[in-house]
Write a structure and sequence with these properties.
single chain, alpha/beta, Rossmann fold, Arc Repressor Mutant, subunit A, 4 domains, 5-stranded parallel sheet, 5-stranded mixed sheet, 42% helix
Length: 473
């Protein structure tokens, strides 16, 4: 298995304890949750079931009862198991009691899909756990789901029978660049660091997407093959993901498209003015669910924790889809190859590389030698209309009296600071110092794939971070 060592350790250590365990694994769709659990336990489950999307409660119950019977044909499953969830979980209890395993592992995948409207699924689950399962020292219940909003609301913030019942939770995040590189190499896909960065800019750290790259082709050809040719495997992936996660995906898609319209993101009020449905608390809920599902990040300008918070699109594939794939197909099998180098490509790549950097703050701090230093991460722009160009892509406000002002530039070669850009950088530092009135030392940091070309103006920088730094574990 590539990566996930810490998650595997947690799963194994937790399930080895001599007490009942209720473990929740959640994360973005396609991130590898099911693969992690099945590989960790080598299919050694007393019982496993995967919820089915968009079916009736009766159909869900029927399939659950069939799974009970199919996996344990030596036992007779009660006919009532297909009638209601209380009977279904009671049949599961009987099955576990008759099991001869030393430790029983129950794995329920995509649990949010099982909680149909007006069904008794959640009360039945609560009853199953509280009345019997929680007292079984050799039982581990592992549940999994992509609908992070459901998991958070119904599991972690449950105020009923499941309050404080979760013994361990694991949020599975997308791969970092180093893990992407390892996965690609394991699949026989050879890329240099620059191409790995670009691959992340398109597909993010989502193993399902990365596994579809073919080592016989270069990255541009793979992008065309997966995203743009007729019947491309990922052509409708964006809509399918949202339809599987949210009951009314059109509202979420509206919000996503509104946020994507501005590189730095929008405030809640700006988003409200860009959608055509009544607010009434719906927008706050939708934003929260998008944030919990890993599509949107909320961040504040420097010194403002809540006031003026911006919502920014942070999922690379969603950004790529809205920028390129949502447009009508041209019929060309080499669309992406032909777009590379265009003005639109350069505009997208600059923003996409910023998102790569923002998802690798740990690696950036390591490269700066401040891995153990507490720091606030923010953005900054001047509120003075006369200094509208003064903005900082990434601010690392350190608790050791230093602030790193990070300029992020995507380039296919060493980045050149000329006289004009040197003046821009010095102006940014000056405006930042005057506006914030900070007494901390200001260190200018350039983040660019190949570093900065040494010349007369290179001395304006205190530090540089390259793609090799971002690729470190």
């Amino acid at each position: 298995m590539i990566g996930r060592r810490e998650e595997q350790r947690i799963l194994r250590d937790t399930t080895a304890k001599e007490e009942a365990q209720f473990i929740v694994v959640y994360g973005r769709r396609r991130v590898g949750k099911t693969y992690l659990i099945r590989e960790t336990f080598a299919e050694g489950f007393t019982f496993s079931y995967t919820g089915i999307a968009k079916v009736t409660a009766r159909r869900q119950l029927t399939e659950f009862a069939r799974a009970l019977q199919a996996q344990h044909p030596q036992h007779t499953v009660s006919p009532l198991a297909s009638q209601n969830w209380f009977a279904a979980f009671d049949s599961l209890r009987v099955l576990i009691e008759q099991s001869s395993r030393g430790r029983d592992l129950i794995f329920i995948d995509e649990m949010p899909w099982m909680d149909n409207h007006k069904s008794d699924f959640l009360p039945a689950l609560e009853h199953f756990w509280n009345s019997w399962a929680s007292a079984q020292k050799n039982l581990s219940l592992i549940v999994c789901g992509s609908a992070a909003a459901w998991i958070t609301k119904k599991m972690f913030r449950n105020k009923g029978g499941l309050y404080n019942r979760i013994t361990r939770q694991i949020r599975l995040k997308p791969f970092a660049l180093a893990e992407c590189q390892a996965l690609l190499e394991a699949n026989g896909v050879r890329m240099n660091p620059y191409d790995i960065i670009q691959c992340f800019m398109v597909f993010g750290g989502i193993p399902y997407y990365l596994n579809q790259l073919d080592g016989r082709y270069g990255l541009p050809q793979n992008i065309d093959r997966l995203c743009f040719v007729e019947d491309a495997p990922l052509r409708y992936e964006h809509d399918m993901v949202f339809a599987s996660l949210f009951d009314r995906p059109e509202k979420y898609l509206q919000v996503i498209e509104a946020i994507a319209s501005k590189k730095k993101g929008l405030t809640r009020e700006q988003i409200k003015g860009s959608v055509d449905f009544a607010d009434g608390g719906n927008l706050s809920r939708i934003l929260k669910e998008l944030e919990e599902s890993g599509f949107v990040r909320r961040y504040g300008p420097l010194g403002k924790k809540k006031l003026g918070a911006l919502y920014q699109l942070c999922d690379p594939f969603t950004t790529f889809y809205l920028t390129w794939m949502q447009r009508p197909a041209t019929g060309s099998d080499n669309l992406w190859t032909s777009l590379m180098g265009s003005g639109a490509y350069h505009a997208w790549s600059g923003y996409a590389f910023e998102q790569v950097c923002l998802s690798h703050i740990t690696q950036i701090k390591q490269a700066l030698g401040i891995a153990g230093v507490r720091a606030d991460i923010a953005s900054w722009h001047s509120s003075n209309p006369g200094e509208a160009g003064a903005q900082i892509d990434l601010v690392i406000d350190r608790f050791d009296n230093v602030i790193n002002l990070c300029e992020i530039k995507f380039s296919s070669r060493e980045y050149l600071i000329d006289k004009a850009y040197d003046l821009v950088l010095r102006n940014k530092i000056g405006v930042f110092q005057r506006t914030t009135r900070t007494r901390k030392a200001l260190h200018l940091t350039m983040i660019t794939p190949y570093g900065v070309k040494p010349n007369t103006y290179h001395s304006v920088l205190q530090s540089e971070i390259t793609m090799d730094d971002l690729l470190r574990t």
